[in-house]
Design goal:
2 domains, three-stranded antiparallel β-sheet, binds zinc ion
Length: 98
Amino acid sequence: MMYIHYCRHCQHIHILNGHKLYCPRCCGHLTELKTPYIKYVNMDRDARKALCARCKDPEQLLLLTASPKKTYDYAKWLQLSMSNVENYHPGNYTAYSH
Ligand SMILES: [Zn+2]
């Protein structure tokens, strides 16, 4: 999977394979953007430039950053709702034990 990363040090957007922490160009700390790869590759030159310009603004960058905490909470929520489903249908499991 490819992910969009922004490097504040060389002010450049890098498309990298996997979740990378360090810039391949200057070894600076990268910020992973929540913009999906497929969306980015379909952007035209102006849209990419605009995205890059937004990344230069720390406040905008915060809005564009993929939040690992959110993903974790979502996974937890998903797990929780899945265990609820199991509890609601105990009949399905007894059927399999025969
Ligand atoms: Zn860099």
